[in-house]
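User: Could you check the structure of this?
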Amino acid sequence: MYKYILMDLDNTLLDFNAGERDAFNKVLESERMHYSDELIQRYQQINGKLWQDLEAGNITRQQLLDTRFQKFFGSIGRTVDGVEKERIFRATLNDSHVLIEGALALLQYLKSKDMIICSATNGVYHTQMQRMQASGIYEYFDHHFISEEIGYEKPDIRFFEHCFNTLQLDNQQEVLMIGDTLTSDILGAKNAGIDSCYFGFKASDATYTVRTLKEIEDII
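Assistant: Sure, the predicted structure tokens are below.
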């Protein structure tokens, strides 16, 4: 049924949350602060809103990266160089390559079925490529679609049109988008007219919903 798999990376194959915690802690250490759940939750709320603004086209990627730590520290009464804090954060995040349980097995299964596997992620190109290589999953992909390089973020239909043009699709019914984010992966797939598989626990109008990556083998 499916020939092409568009695969999100963060919190679908790669454990972004683990890397984010380590990188955020490094930023706090640069201010002689100690990590706490309250602080990272505050940061994630601010960062999440900025990503929503980016996906909606209200800000640029560079504005997000340059200001998120300035906004976070400003919310707790500190003035910092947001660009420098982003540099500290990025240096640690680039080295983060913990896999989600079942990620490698899923990629091996898809490859055994002669699927054309494509990374399809909103992220920084260098970071995503380095993390895939360090985790040992890079070799399983036939194409890489990374928003920084493409110039559009999921759920923008132009992101998906770029994928389709590169793959020279004859039939979009042969494409399945797999991801953990409703507002980018699932909505983007719907906008682009392709099937989707939501990996998560929220209510979803995706074509399929799975709680573990192993379940995807029953779909394909």
